[in-house]
């Protein structure tokens, strides 16, 4: 299990202003703020993103200096998984809206 401090370290690192250039288009600060609590509580998200033991044992800055390829892979998995979560929430929200309109 990945501890809460480590999750927050990676969240803060990858969503920081210095990392904004690596963020996929259309993922805004506002949207990230809306899903932050959900993502931080999602154990499967973090198991997927920080799956390697080396990644789990290091802060993002340590990983970046020790293994650039592992760091880039982790950053990529983070953003791909964030995008999937946002898309899932959008689909679920649309379904709820459509069901509401049918009433």
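^ Assign residues to that structure.
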């Amino acid at each position: 299990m990945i501890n809460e401090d480590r999750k927050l370290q990676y969240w803060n690192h990858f969503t920081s202003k210095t990392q904004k250039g690596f963020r996929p288009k259309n993922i805004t600060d506002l949207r990230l703020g809306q899903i932050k609590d959900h993502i931080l509580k999602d154990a499967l998200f973090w198991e997927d993103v920080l799956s390697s033991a080396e990644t789990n044992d290091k802060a993002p800055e340590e990983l970046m200096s020790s293994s650039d390829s592992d760091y880039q892979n982790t950053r990529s998995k983070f953003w791909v998984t964030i995008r999937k979560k946002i898309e899932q929430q959008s689909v679920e929200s649309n379904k709820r809206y459509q069901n509401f309109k049918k009433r």
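The mean pLDDT is 87.
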